[in-house]
Specification:
131 residues, alpha+beta, OB fold (Dihydrolipoamide Acetyltransferase, E2P), 3-stranded antiparallel β-sheet, 3 helices, globular
Length: 131
């Protein structure tokens, strides 16, 4: 069973969002998503400064099995990317909610975060996918 931190919010394409104290949000892929993908070999992330709409592709993760788009759970401007992943994409597998974060966004509308799934909603979605 995948680990689903209660303090995060989730979207249906398996990305998570963490609200930071400075008003930015950190985005990554869930434990479930990294487990489905398998060992990551490459992560492509956007340039800082790029503005994204909610559900717009913000990058690609490639594993030995497949390449998969990563979608922005909310609209915002990219303020930081996890450059360490260029040399160590396996960090996403090892620590998807910590060192394996992908981007930080300055949200366009912080209210969008509230529309995302909470941990219980995300677990229910996973359960229904597995039925």
């Amino acid at each position: 069973m995948s680990h689903i931190p209660e303090e995060l919010r989730y979207n249906e394409s398996h990305e998570w969002v963490r609200q930071e104290e400075d008003g930015t949000v950190t985005v990554g892929i869930t434990d479930h998503a990294q487990a489905q993908l398998g060992d990551l070999v490459y992560v492509e992330l956007p340039e800082p400064g790029l503005s994204l709409q909610a559900n717009e592709s913000l990058g690609v993760v490639e594993s030995v099995k497949a390449a998969s788009d990563i979608y922005s759970p909310i609209g915002g401007r990219v303020v930081a990317v996890n450059t360490a992943l260029a040399d160590a994409p396996e960090q996403v597998n090892a620590d998807p909610y910590g060192e394996g974060w992908l981007v930080r966004l300055a949200p366009e509308d912080p209210g969008e975060i509230g529309a995302l799934l909470d941990s219980e909603g995300y677990q229910a979605m996973l359960d229904s996918e597995n039925e």
